[in-house]
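Please fill in the sequence for the structure shown.

STRUCTURE ENCODING:
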């Protein structure tokens, strides 16, 4: 990461800067397979046409986004980058090379230099940041469906999510894991590795790009509801009204999230991943993520400048209380995680059950706290935050390959 530390965010030219890094790699001979060139050309045209950066607009043509939520989305993207940057330096990881331990699918590089603080950061981040990302991603879905209709909406989402997922599958994922291949002592050339990697990509080995396909699936489900449930507006409006009463909404979210997450965590475990063809996902979390996305859709349907997101609303005005709750629950979860690591037998099972319950509550509390802080304090334009939030999607797409190679 240090090689990038001197770049001023306000000078970044959108996702094109990071994308040109990939194009430069192509010029050096990594992408020697014709399929790479086709995907690169397609993605390059999309980026240069600006389709990734188009903001949703209302009927009057004015942007419907709010500064605070855009900045929050950029902040969560920063957390994702830091999360993947710190994975290889966690103190509790074994010292052996990831290729020999099987960890390389989620942690391609394990460094000999470690720090326990990175374990805490990764553990706490993993309680909420992707859930919050799904909530934020749902905010403009309903207004987009109303403005465009289901067919155009899905075409746009395929352009924004489906094509980049293919790009990650064919280009960025093999580029990232090639670094792990070299770190393991394999001198296999890039073309040979790419051909060997394709079957692994077809079984869901795409790094953080799993978020893209899952979000696209949730968007398709929202479009289905839009076209088949004419009374959905009323249901969404009644749910969104709870944004005026954050404690009630918080408790409802915790209960529903517990119902969505805890049974799957008990059946499959908290950590295991699986795949359906090229689509990987964590077994315990699909319904949990769908719930947070649906909450975002409902809250966004009522407008993003009122209710839960009002700068002078009940959530923002009590930001300090929500922050204290989030910190307390995070500390509790971290303590339970530490005890579960050393416990055995029945004691470990009980601790893991309690930890899962605390995870559900901590996820909601951290999400509410971050929304409260950003809505309360980050509602004025700032050039650095504006640049980062405008580039957040491009950064999310390409960061993994860059981070793994820098490790």
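FILLED IN BY: designer on duty
SEQUENCE:
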């Amino acid at each position: 990461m240090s090689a990038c530390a001197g770049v001023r965010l306000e000078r970044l030219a959108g996702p094109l800067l990071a994308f040109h890094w990939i194009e430069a790699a192509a010029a050096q001979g990594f992408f020697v397979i014709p399929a790479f060139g086709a995907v690169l050309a397609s993605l390059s045209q999309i980026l240069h046409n600006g389709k990734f950066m188009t903001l949703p607009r209302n009927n009057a043509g004015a942007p419907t986004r709010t500064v605070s939520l855009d900045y929050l989305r950029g902040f969560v993207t920063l957390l994702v980058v830091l999360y993947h940057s710190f994975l290889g330096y966690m103190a509790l990881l074994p010292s052996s090379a990831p290729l020999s331990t099987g960890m390389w699918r989620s942690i391609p590089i394990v460094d000999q230099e470690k720090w326990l603080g990175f374990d805490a950061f990764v553990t706490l981040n993993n309680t909420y940041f992707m859930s919050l990302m799904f909530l934020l991603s749902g905010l403009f879905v309903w207004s987009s469906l109303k403005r465009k209709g289901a067919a155009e909406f899905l075409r746009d989402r395929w352009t924004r999510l489906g094509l980049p997922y293919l790009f990650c599958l064919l280009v960025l994922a093999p580029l990232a894991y090639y670094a792990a291949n070299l770190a393991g002592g394999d001198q296999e050339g890039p073309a040979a590795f790419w051909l060997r990697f394709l079957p692994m990509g077809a079984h869901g080995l795409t790094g953080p790009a799993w978020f893209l396909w899952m979000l696209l699936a949730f968007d398709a489900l929202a479009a289905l509801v839009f076209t088949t449930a004419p009374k959905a507006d009323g249901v969404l409006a009644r749910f969104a009204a709870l944004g005026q009463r954050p404690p009630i909404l918080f408790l409802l979210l915790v209960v529903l999230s517990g119902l969505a997450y805890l049974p799957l965590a008990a059946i499959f475990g908290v950590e295991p991943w699986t795949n359906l063809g090229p689509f990987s996902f964590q077994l315990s979390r699909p319904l949990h993520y769908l719930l947070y996305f649906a909450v975002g859709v409902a809250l966004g349907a009522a407008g993003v400048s009122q209710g839960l997101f009002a700068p002078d609303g009940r959530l923002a005005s009590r930001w300090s209380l929500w922050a204290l709750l989030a910190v307390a629950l995070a500390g509790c979860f971290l303590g339970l995680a530490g005890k579960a690591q050393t416990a055995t037998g029945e004691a470990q099972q009980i601790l893991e059950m309690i930890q899962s319950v605390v995870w559900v509550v901590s996820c909601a509390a951290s999400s509410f706290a971050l929304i409260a802080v950003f809505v309360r304090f980050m509602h004025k334009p700032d050039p650095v935050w504006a640049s980062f939030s405008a580039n957040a999607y491009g950064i999310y797409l390409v960061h993994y390959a860059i981070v793994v190679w820098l490790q």
